[in-house]
Structure formats: structure tokens, C-alpha cells
Design a protein that fits this description.
The complex is a heterodimer. By secondary structure, chain A is mainly alpha-helical. Chain A contains 9 helices and no strands. The radius of gyration of chain A is 19 Å and the shape is elongated. In chain B, the strands form 2 sheets. In chain B, strands 1, 2, 3, 4, 5, 6, 7, 8, 9, 10, 11, 12, 13 and 14 form a 14-stranded mixed beta sheet that branches. Chain B has a two-stranded antiparallel ribbon with strand order 15-16. Chain B starts with a helix and ends with a helix. The chains are: A mainly alpha, B alpha+beta.
Chain lengths: ~200, ~425
């Protein structure tokens, strides 16, 4: 357990600091803030970005962009206890920008068929890797906002209200968006042999 | 509905189960990068030489003055204040039909179509144009122009965030009036500014290029040229010449081969000469080490992902001349992936073949790169070299017989070339 020295949070173990205290340290340019915020949220931010954008070699840069954006904008955080959703919001904007840049790259025919590059997932089974590739190809067919809503709700497990808040839309709107995205993903997944087989076998 | 939700839940499970964790090295490197970035921010913010308490006092005094100045206006403003709606702005199309996903295609013989947005902004699409409204938010929209011309008028509000994607370029708008044209076939972007300010980003422009009223920007991908001048927009701003063609305005053909420039917005730069990339200049001066030093300071990975074409070419050349094969290959590979259509990308294929042959000693990879170069540039500057080297590699790795047809082809296409003797020998 690390202990912090100096400042208003003197001698508090890092784990005992609240988000509000971390936000104040970041805003006050406390030199320990970068380490503390990173240690607490790097994993979460990386998941949000990876799952939103899909397999990409750039995820570490996106994580970095998100945290740099956080420290640039922490002065605009109104409620210090909202550090986590604030960070998620920045991660979503970063993901959206990455998705837009990917569309731009496709204009340049960066890859021959416009598909995602082969990037290892955590699963070594080639069939699972192929299923993931096809799944993200389906998500690519969604608008950015629909895609992010789908990922937040179903991969990240956010509540509807959290999802709506993260995307800056009303609860009714997010329900509409999710319904549309879910219908599309279901339709396209069922048209795909591999994905539909995987879904049927995953009944348990 | 429930079925769709159940499927979505399983899909979410698949996504979760296959998300790889960061390695310890990635975790530690990321943290170190962040600490460095935050330290840099802190030093920039106190870069005026003020002690922190002086900066705070100065900021407090500034805020006090600002409050004093605006307080008198606040009361009047509060009466007419209308909060920004949380719902995305609405839009409709006049004189046209909207397809799936907001797709709009205007036939060449149809009248102009009019996209009208709920925040008072509008977009006029010329006949023959294609595009779509990709997304709308409470404060703006993302409009994609796939082909053709559009006149864009964005109503300025306190918070406005509009983006017009034109091919690989993005025009960021806060409140302005401009004409944008994208020629997918010629890979040329034109922006004529009427009022306000935009920032254009995309390949050959670096990170961003601001434009103000009265300026015209032309960015062309295939030869990586950028012009910023005061050329007037076409007479019929939304429906005249095809984008990317040599437009004739008031009897004058505008230059389209001016070199790349990133001059300040109020400077007319058409007609200037010579590359302006500092790395290109350094390579031309033989200072390869400095190019490599700057790239390493910036982070080679970041540089090859973000730098414009001229810098990538310069970095690859500098690394090649300095015998830094690893960086050279990265630069050339990035150049090909980011600017795949140009002559530099084709040359990079040949150079990558040389690296594969001489550094990696991989005949197969080298042959693949030479084949790619020959397919992309059959009459190119290095075609003779690519074919000759491929012929020798095939002879070495697969035997003389396998190389015979290549030798005959070489003699036919490049009589008197540097590999003529070897080709004669192999063709016997």
C-alpha cells in the first residue's frame, strides 16, 4: 500500500482517496495526480476504447489521448465526484474521433478490402477471432453513436441512464438508439453462419 | 425485441471475453508517457516565468475584471437566454429524397437539393453530388460529402460543433459560410471561404489548416500539393465545373501544381516554390541525423502516423541514408498505408524490396515488393531495376530455369539496361 505525502491528502493511502479528491488533485496540478488517476482508471478506459473501436494497433495511443484530454479539461469538471463518467465521456469522444479517422483512411484504401487489420484478441481460437472480426464488421455498419451506445450498454454493462448521460442524450433517445442498434446487430448476426452458430451454442 | 436484446447481451459477452488486457510493459509505458505529458502541460502553463502564486493572482484579477465588464450585460441576456436543447438538431431535405442512413444522392440533371437543419444551418448540394448526414448532436452535425459540391452555412451559436467530411478531409466549423468541393476521382478538395473561420484537417495538411473569409484552399492527394490563395469561387457556387478539374474563373486558369505550404491564413501562397517541410530541407542538406533525432524526440511511432507525406518521405530517406533500416521501413510502410495512391508510395514499394533483399535477406519478401512495384508502376522510374533484381532473386532461389522468362522479358523491355548481361546469360 502506497502512502501519499504532502498536500491536502497527506498520508492517505492511494486506495483511500475518493474520486473527488483525485479530481481536486488533478485540477490543482498535484504532481502525483497523473500516476493516481492512471493507476485507478487506465484499465477501464482501455476497455471502453478497445471495445468501442474494435481490434486496433492504436489503442495505447487512444488511451493516452483520453488521459491527456482529461488533464487538459479537468478544470471544466463541475462535480468532482463525477470523475469517472467525465473520463468515460472523454474516452467516447476519443473513440468517436478514431472511428471517424478510420472512415477517412478507408477513403484512401488503406487496406485492400477496408476490413480491420488482423490484431490478436485475448482468445487464441481462430474461430473466435474470426467471429470477433465479423462482429466488428457488423458494428462498423452502425452510426458512431449507435455503436457506442451498444458497446456501453451490452459490453460495458452500463445502465440505460449512464449510457444516456455518457452520450449526452435523453433516456428516451438512448432507448430508441439501442433498439435500432440491437435490431440491426441481431439481423446481421443471424445472417452470418459463424456468428449465428456461435450464438446458438452459447445458450448456456 | 427481447430476442434482439438477448442476442445483444451475448454479443456483449463475446466482446468482453475477447478484450485483451494491457501488458505490464504497456501499462508502465503509458503511465510514463502520461506523467511526461502532464509535466509538459504544467510547464507550458507557467511558461511566462510567473511563479504559481503570481499566475493565480493574475488569473483572479483577470476574472474579476471580466466579471465587472460583463455583469452589466448579464441581466439583459438572462431575459432572452435560451438553453441549448439536449436533443440532437433535426434536419430535412428539400428537393430530394433521403435514403437509408441519411444517404442523399442528387442526380446530375436534378435541381439543387437543400438540407435544412433545426439550428438554422443549411447545406445546398449541387446536382451530381452524393453524401449523407452521418450524425447530429444538440450542437451540430457531421455531414459527409462523398462527391460533388456543397455550400455550407452554419449558424453560429455559443457552442457549435459541425464537421463536414469531404473524402479523407474533415472541415471543422464553428459558424461560417463556405463552399466545399470534393472530387473522388481526382482526389482533390476545394474550400472557398465566404465568412467566418474553419479548420481543415487531413492528409497533406498535417494536423490542421485554418482558413478565414476570402481564402481558397485546394489540397490534392495524388501529388500532395496544397494551395492557399484568394481565388474566387466558381460563378455558380454550387453547380459549375466538376471538382478537381482545372477551373477557369474570370478567364484565368488557376495554378494547381503549387507546392505544399502551411503559411499563415492571411498570406497568399500560390506560386511559391520549393518544399516547405523542414525535414525535406534537412535531408536535402544532408543532415540526416537531425531528422532522426527530431523523429525520436517526437516518438517515431507517432511521427509516422501523424506527419504529412513530405515528412514521411524525408524520414524514410534520412533513415535509409543513415543506415537505420528499421525506421526507414516503418516510414515507408506508413507512407504506403496512409498515402497509398501516390508516386511516393510506389517508390516506397521498390525501396522496401531493397530492404527485404539486402537487410532481411528475404528473397520471398523482396520479390513480393518488386512485384507490387511493377504492378503499380509498370513504366516507373525503378521498373528496370525491380525486374532485374527480381530476375536475379528468382534465379538464386528457384533456379535458372525459373528465371528464364523474366530474363527474356527484361531484354525485351530494357535493352541496354544494367542487368542486360545477366539477362542474356539466364536466357540461354
Amino acid at each position: 500500500m502506497r502512502l501519499l505525502r504532502g498536500g491536502t491528502e497527506q498520508n492517505k493511502p492511494a486506495e483511500a482517496l475518493t474520486d473527488a479528491q483525485l479530481a481536486r488533485m488533478a485540477r490543482g496540478r498535484d504532481p502525483r495526480a497523473a500516476t493516481l488517476v492512471w493507476d485507478r482508471y487506465a484499465g477501464m478506459v482501455r476497455w471502453v476504447l478497445y471495445r468501442s473501436v474494435g481490434p486496433t494497433h492504436d489503442v495505447e495511443d487512444l488511451v493516452q489521448d483520453t488521459f491527456v484530454g482529461f488533464f487538459r479539461n479537468v478544470g471544466t469538471l463541475r462535480d468532482d465526484s463525477s470523475l469517472r463518467p467525465f473520463l468515460v465521456g472523454i474516452a467516447l469522444r476519443t473513440a468517436r474521433s478514431a472511428l471517424r479517422k478510420r472512415r477517412v483512411r478507408r477513403w484512401l484504401r488503406l487496406s485492400d478490402n477496408g476490413t480491420l487489420p488482423e490484431v490478436p484478441t485475448s482468445d487464441g481460437d481462430p474461430r473466435v477471432r474470426e467471429a470477433v472480426r465479423r462482429l466488428y464488421a457488423i458494428l462498423d455498419e452502425l452510426g458512431d453513436r449507435d455503436r457506442l451506445a451498444f458497446v456501453l450498454r451490452h459490453a460495458e454493462g452500463h445502465e440505460l441512464t449512464e449510457t444516456a448521460s455518457a452520450l449526452g442524450v435523453s433516456l428516451a433517445t438512448v432507448k430508441r438508439i439501442l433498439s435500432r442498434a440491437e435490431d440491426h446487430v441481431q439481423l446481421r448476426a443471424k445472417q452470418d453462419d459463424l456468428l449465428s452458430a456461435w450464438l446458438e451454442n452459447d445458450d448456456g | 425485441m427481447d430476442d434482439a436484446r438477448t442476442t445483444a447481451g451475448r454479443i456483449g459477452g463475446l466482446i468482453r471475453a475477447t478484450t485483451p488486457a494491457a501488458s505490464l510493459q504497456q501499462y508502465l509505458e503509458g503511465r510514463a508517457r502520461l506523467i511526461a505529458a502532464v509535466d509538459k502541460m504544467r510547464s507550458v502553463r507557467t511558461g511566462l516565468g510567473l511563479r504559481p502564486w503570481m499566475a493565480v493572482a493574475f488569473a483572479a484579477a483577470s476574472i474579476a475584471v471580466a466579471i465587472f465588464l460583463v455583469r452589466g450585460r448579464l441581466h439583459a441576456l438572462s431575459a432572452s437566454f435560451v438553453p441549448t436543447p439536449a436533443a440532437p438538431i433535426t434536419w430535412r431535405l428539400e428537393n430530394g429524397t433521403v435514403g437509408a442512413q441519411g444517404y442523399v444522392s442528387i442526380p446530375a440533371d436534378a435541381p439543387r437539393a437543400h438540407l435544412v437543419f433545426g439550428d438554422g444551418s443549411d447545406v445546398l448540394l449541387s446536382p451530381g453530388s452524393r453524401g449523407r448526414v452521418a450524425a447530429t448532436t444538440a450542437v451540430g452535425a457531421e455531414v459527409v460529402l462523398e462527391q460533388g459540391r456543397a455550400r455550407v452555412r452554419v449558424a453560429h451559436r455559443d457552442r457549435t460543433s459541425w464537421v463536414v467530411d469531404a473524402g479523407p478531409f474533415a472541415v471543422h466549423v464553428t459558424g461560417t459560410d463556405f463552399l466545399v468541393a470534393w472530387g473522388a476521382d481526382t482526389e482533390t478538395l476545394d474550400v472557398w471561404m465566404r465568412s467566418g473561420r474553419v479548420v481543415v484537417g487531413g492528409p497533406v495538411l498535417g494536423d490542421s489548416q485554418p482558413l478565414i473569409a476570402g481564402q481558397h484552399l485546394r489540397a490534392r492527394l495524388h501529388d500532395a500539393t496544397v494551395i492557399i490563395d484568394a481565388a474566387p469561387e466558381p460563378v455558380d457556387g454550387v453547380a459549375s465545373t466538376s471538382p478537381g478539374q482545372e477551373p477557369v474563373v474570370a478567364g484565368v486558369v488557376r495554378p494547381t501544381h503549387a507546392p505544399f505550404t502551411n503559411a499563415p491564413p492571411n498570406t497568399s501562397t500560390a506560386g511559391s516554390s520549393g518544399p516547405t517541410s523542414s525535414w525535406s530541407k534537412l535531408v536535402a542538406a544532408g543532415d540526416f541525423a537531425r531528422v532522426l533525432q527530431e523523429a525520436e524526440a517526437e516518438g517515431v511511432g507517432r511521427a509516422i502516423r501523424a506527419r504529412p507525406l513530405a515528412d514521411l518521405r524525408a524520414l524514410g530517406d534520412a533513415a535509409r541514408y543513415a543506415n537505420n533500416a528499421s525506421t526507414a521501413k516503418k516510414a515507408y510502410l506508413s507512407l504506403r498505408s496512409r498515402f497509398g495512391a501516390g508516386s511516393d508510395a510506389r517508390t516506397a514499394a521498390f525501396l522496401l524490396g531493397r530492404f527485404a533483399e539486402e537487410q532481411d535477406h528475404s528473397s520471398d519478401d523482396a520479390i513480393r515488393w518488386y512485384d507490387r512495384y511493377l504492378a503499380e508502376a509498370p513504366g516507373g522510374e525503378f521498373a528496370g531495376n525491380a525486374l532485374g533484381r527480381k530476375m536475379l532473386l528468382v534465379a538464386r532461389s528457384q533456379g535458372r530455369d525459373a528465371a528464364k522468362s523474366l530474363a527474356e522479358r527484361y531484354l525485351q523491355r530494357f535493352p541496354g539496361g544494367p542487368y542486360e548481361a545477366a539477362a542474356h546469360d539466364l536466357s540461354q
